[in-house]
Amino acid sequence: MKTSQILKERVGGLWEKYVKHEFVKQMKEGTLPQESFRYYLIQDSKYVEVMLRGLMRASSFAPSSQATQILSTILNTRDKGMEVHNYLLDKLGITHEEITNTGYNLANYAYTRHLYYYSTKGWKEFLSAWAPCMWGYYEVGKYVADSPNQLFSKWAEFYASDEYKRRVEAILGALDSYEFSEDLLIPFSASVRFEIMFWEYSLRREETPFYELI
Amino acid sequence: MKTSQILKERVGGLWEKYVKHEFVKQMKEGTLPQESFRYYLIQDSKYVEVMLRGLMRASSFAPSSQATQILSTILNTRDKGMEVHNYLLDKLGITHEEITNTGYNLANYAYTRHLYYYSTKGWKEFLSAWAPCMWGYYEVGKYVADSPNQLFSKWAEFYASDEYKRRVEAILGALDSYEFSEDLLIPFSASVRFEIMFWEYSLRREETPFYELI
């Protein structure tokens, strides 16, 4: 069995708790309060920035062909993602300044420091920590795509797209080039837990007291 | 005056010693012994690998728009470079194994460790350490392009190309977004010296006793 498949199986029911979280269900049904979505988008923007830096750092440990392929795939499909992202920010009146001036909530701060940590440990460890985010959002995108709420369906459309799927395939392909080991389960399962907490904290619009140096 | 221009002026005559080195002149005239070129290509292949890893590592410290732009430009123009590179390796019977099994000479080892060091220090410091290589090779390419030796002209053709020029412009554009400071001159001038030594060591086919962990 593929490494990615083993990892997913080993986290058991946590995976469904992540991809079918109450936050996700409310997006699909169109009942999610817009304020929660707005809160989520700001936290997510902060997360993506750290994730990209982590990818770059971790790539420096990777076999060059894998690093090149993944970075190309991510960067070449970035325009579409940014287009949707900027459309949503615009619709909700979120500026770059607001994102910078808002702190991280505890779940997001823990999650991004966890990604940073694994980006300094090694490539396959980073892939394993990163996979739940990329992989899970593809499933979430497919699930939410038919939302009656135009903002949520627009958001989901990108994650359900073929372009996004290519990213996921590139990442899982790289991860699957390594044999499964219990070591890989540690970052993977922590990231699944962080994803669940990420929805949770967004539903509750938790306080955001954690900042980075700029 | 632009930061890159100040840096070039401040290294004075060293720049010409680099881009019009005896090794370069012999390529242009077609008199360079093929064995020296072969030796050079192996050392250069090892260098490029470390340089790319350094770029990825340093990018994690960069403003995301700059990191994205430079990585995209480098990766999207990489096919052409690899095409020429692989053509030359093939012509000279150089395998991937030979590159891996050959050590670094002292100049190359010092140069690549220097790049590693700056890739951990910060983005503008790395740009300054990296610029002499990218910028100088464009000038070298233009100079060597009319060589009567088909291997050397093929080699030069890529560095003299518009695709390669776009890389140089992206890098210098990023470097020029920072004000000149004496601190930036330190990595820049060391790299110019290493480039000169790189040609020197290749002409003399110096011993290659330095290895990395794989």
From TrEMBL, chains A, B:
GO cellular component: cytosol
Pfam families cross-referenced by the UniProt entry: TENA_THI-4
Top-level taxon in the UniProt lineage: Archaea
InterPro entries, alphabetized: Haem_Oase-like_multi-hlx, Thiaminase-2/PQQC, Thiamine_Salvage_TenA
Domain Thiaminase-2/PQQC: 11-203
Protein name: TenA family transcriptional regulator
